[in-house]
Amino acid sequence: MLMVTIKTTCFVIHSRPFSDSRLILQLLTPNSGVISALYRLPSKKYTFRPKPFEPLLAYYKGDHSLKTLTSLEQEGMAFSLSGRRLFCGLYVNELVQRLLRVEEESHTLFADYFAVLEHLANADDYVTSLRVFELNLLEYLGYAPDYTYDINGDPIVYSEDTYYLYDSSLGFKHIVFIKQAINIFTGQSIGLLNSKNKQAMQTNSTIKRFTRLALKPLLGHKPLKARSLFD
Amino acid sequence: MFSPLIDQLINALKQLPGVGPKSAQRMALHLLERDRHGAKKLADVLGQSVENVKRCERCRILTEQTLCQICTNPRRDPDLLCVVESPADVLAIESASVYKGLYFVLLGKLSPIDGIGPKEVGMDELNARFENENIQEVIIATNPTVEGEATAHYIFEHAQKYTIKATRIAHGIPLGGELEYVDGGTLAHAISSRREI
Ligand SMILES: [Zn+2]
């Protein structure tokens, strides 16, 4: 059977040596989520080494879980991340590697990934772009709750003094406020989650509390290692 | 092969980096057919090394002493601490012979997806040295890869807490290239023209 060669834009999420001259790369693609592919390093003279945060053009083939790259080249300028911005980039890659399913259409997420790298490289308030990416990722994975209606089907009131309890499997439940807890959010915060308004998110620390809470059941018992970089 | 022992020997040799089945077979036959004396010596030294070589308690270079010869050398400058990813990097820098300070070997680089965080690269031990020694400058010589740069920044942030000056070796070193493979002259230049972070 003739194997079809597939051409795709991609980013390296992770690479590890397979032998002296070969790497196993995990690539984020627009069409197929994260794929694993075997890559033979070019000769020593040619110094190209695939690295994260750099748009690449890949040609690969294979129907099994491990593809074979026939060609890999730089397609655009690498996003230059340094300092804490680089930690954020590693955090985003760990999220993608841990949570993305293989062989699944991923155009919107690929665009979100591109956007978060762009912000990490250039924006003043780069941390907010992490929150937006986390919200987009939850949506892509189908785990974003309804931010407009509560679990009883009533519209969520985006106000400072309405309170909702977040249940990761059901959504938001309207409650009478007694005392603050990790899973209680104001209607105003939920409005922010819905609008993803970056300006307003900057000053609202509850967004981070929400994304952590919402990602937790997806990540299981193994915490994200990249978080330890920020301690 | 014709003997289970020889098969075992060939398999054991195949574990060495860059040694494939063919060269492993050649090595095994050479040792057994032409150089029994050398083979015996190799076996003895290997056995003794595995038994006695451990890591220097201060810098984590391989040594059979508690502290290595660099750490105990009174002519080395204790004001300077060079942080590298691997013992091979220490050998590379030593062979360039421009650096006279002390070392700390991370034994890796920060790589969250591989489960390697600050703890795994010995940041606790490094912080203890920042705390307990009178280090004036930490020269960060991790590789210029994404993980190496992240590691460098992490160390920089911690050096700052102890108000220790942090410098990064200059990179005439090719991007993504590893220290271990850089020639002595380039490396000497990279160290002497290091920049403050
Ligand atoms: Zn030592």
Describe the structure.
The complex is a heterodimer of chains A (231) and B (197). By secondary structure, chain A is of the alpha+beta class. Chain A folds into two domains: 6-74, OB fold (Dihydrolipoamide Acetyltransferase, E2P) (Beta Barrel), CATH 2.40.50.140; 83-146 and 160-230, Recombination protein O, C-terminal domain (de novo design (two linked rop proteins), Up-down Bundle), CATH 1.20.1440. Chain A has helices at residues 84-99, 107-122, 126-141, 187-195, 198-201, 206-219, and strands at 6-17, 22-28, 34-40, 56-61, 66-74, 163-167, 171-175, 184-186. In chain A, helix 1 packs antiparallel against helix 2, helix 1 packs parallel to helix 3 (126-141) and helix 2 (107-122) runs antiparallel to helix 3. The mean pLDDT of chain A is 92. Chain B is α/β, with parallel strands linked by helices. Chain B has two domains: 4-52, RecR Domain 1 (Helicase, Ruva Protein, domain 3, Orthogonal Bundle), CATH 1.10.8.420; 68-196, Dna Topoisomerase Vi A Subunit, Chain: A, domain 2. In chain B, the strands form two sheets. In chain B, strands 4-3-5-6-7 form a five-stranded mixed β-sheet. In chain B, strand 5 (137-140), helix 6 (146-161) and strand 6 form a beta-alpha-beta unit. Classes of the chains: A alpha+beta (231), B alpha/beta (197). At the A-B interface, strand 1 and helix 1 of A face helix 6 of B. The complex binds zinc ion.
Structure at a glance:
The complex is a heterodimer of chains A (231) and B (197). Chain A is of the alpha+beta class and 231 residues long.
Essential attributes:
heterodimer, A: 231 residues, alpha+beta, OB fold (Dihydrolipoamide Acetyltransferase, E2P), de novo design (two linked rop proteins), 2 domains, 5-stranded mixed β-barrel, 3-stranded antiparallel β-sheet, 6 helices, B: 197 residues, alpha/beta, Helicase, Ruva Protein, domain 3, Dna Topoisomerase Vi A Subunit, Chain: A, domain 2, 5-stranded mixed β-sheet, two-stranded antiparallel sheet, elongated, binds zinc ion
